[in-house]
From TrEMBL:
<keyword id="KW-0238">DNA-binding</keyword>
<dbReference type="GO" id="GO:0106300">
    <property type="term" value="P:protein-DNA covalent cross-linking repair"/>
</dbReference>
<dbReference type="InterPro" id="IPR003738">
    <property type="entry name" value="SRAP"/>
</dbReference>
<protein>
    <recommendedName>
        <fullName>Abasic site processing protein</fullName>
        <ecNumber>3.4.-.-</ecNumber>
    </recommendedName>
</protein>
<keyword id="KW-0456">Lyase</keyword>
<dbReference type="GO" id="GO:0006508">
    <property type="term" value="P:proteolysis"/>
</dbReference>
<dbReference type="GO" id="GO:0003697">
    <property type="term" value="F:single-stranded DNA binding"/>
</dbReference>
<dbReference type="InterPro" id="IPR036590">
    <property type="entry name" value="SRAP-like"/>
</dbReference>
<dbReference type="Pfam" id="PF02586">
    <property type="entry name" value="SRAP"/>
</dbReference>
<keyword id="KW-0645">Protease</keyword>
<keyword id="KW-0378">Hydrolase</keyword>
<dbReference type="GO" id="GO:0016829">
    <property type="term" value="F:lyase activity"/>
</dbReference>
<comment type="similarity">
    <text>Belongs to the SOS response-associated peptidase family.</text>
</comment>
<keyword id="KW-0190">Covalent protein-DNA linkage</keyword>
<keyword id="KW-0227">DNA damage</keyword>
<dbReference type="GO" id="GO:0008233">
    <property type="term" value="F:peptidase activity"/>
</dbReference>
Amino acid sequence: MCGRISQYRGLHEFADTLNMDGAWRNNVGSQPLMRYNIAPSTPVAVMRVDDAGLRADLVKWGWRPHWATDRAPPINARAEKVAHGPFFRAIWPNRAITPVDGWFEWVDEGGPKKQPYYIRRRDRRPALCASIGQFAGSDHDGFVIITADAQGGMVDVHDRRPAVLAPALAREWIDPATSREHAEQLVLNLGEPAEAFEWYRVGTAVGNTRNQGPDIILPISAAGASGGQAPATGNR
């Protein structure tokens, strides 16, 4: 999974998709986010449950433990290792959902530059990505998206995908009553399959994070793409 995502809908649409009982403490805002080309280390809308209930915040994409000063903060964590390795041990219990409209992958197709693709759900609903993070209200806060093997079915046989959960499983993921063992099984074995997604080529303008308009996610060619319909870019 490459390090670009999009969140152009508003929080109310993400909340409708997650469909949890209760009112959200919304620290994101009520307007569509209109962010089509989100890069690491920038704020991203994240949804979770704390002691006071449901809340949505803007949290920096990327996190590292205080002792890992020799590397940039990772933005992703592998589902196969995240529950047991020392790097993410401190935040493994802090589960969240990162709702995205889609994400980008770059594929080597033999040209001078890798070809960017945009990936989204076939049903055009937001993708509910399993995430973990530090949400202490400090400068060290951040989050990572958990990734799983793409099983050879999306864009490139070697790529990885976010661990996208169906709404019912996403609710289990962020439920504090869900055990760590069950949470691990959710991201290892119960993520949405490749058949739930479509992908298509987009222009190289996505390579520059200053480019943020809806044209970023428009298809440039239907050839070789899985479902080449023009994307919805507004409220649904």
